Amino acid sequence: MKNVTMTVRIPAEIKDRLEALSEATDRSKAYLAAQAIEEFIEVQEWQIKAIQEGVQAANRGEFESGEKVNATFKKWGAHVDH
């Protein structure tokens, strides 16, 4: 994978925290910033894909029964009112 240079604006506090983390981990600020961006993008891509799949399923009329939804809420301790 080819690396490119990119400039971003961040708050001074974040820069300070990044510098401290860089020193503590013996990693460069650039490496840590690139890792953070990569991890952020992976999570966002996963979430968007899951949402899109859910919307597509809903558009096809694929819904869980009310009983199954209530059972799931009950399993997690949520109160269900009808």
Characterise the protein shown here.
There is one protein chain. The chain has one domain (12-75). 67% of the residues lie in helices and 0% in strands. It contains three helices and no strands. The protein is elongated, with a radius of gyration of 21 Å. The mean pLDDT is 93.
Using DSSP, what is the number of strands? Answer: 0
Catalogue the unreliable spans.
none
**Largest pleated sheet:** none
Strand content: under 5%
Oligomeric form = single chain
What would you report as the Rg, rounded to the nearest angstrom? 21 Å
- Euclidean distance between termini CA atoms: 54 Å
Level of helix content?
55-70%
How many structural domains can be distinguished in the coordinates?
1
Q: Tell the overall outline.
A: elongated
Structural class by helix and strand composition: mainly alpha
Mean pLDDT: 93
In short:
By secondary structure, the chain is mainly alpha-helical. It is 67% helix and 0% strand.
Draw up the topology in text.
Elements: H1 12-25, H2 29-59, H3 66-75
Looking at this protein, list some descriptive labels.
3 helices; mainly alpha
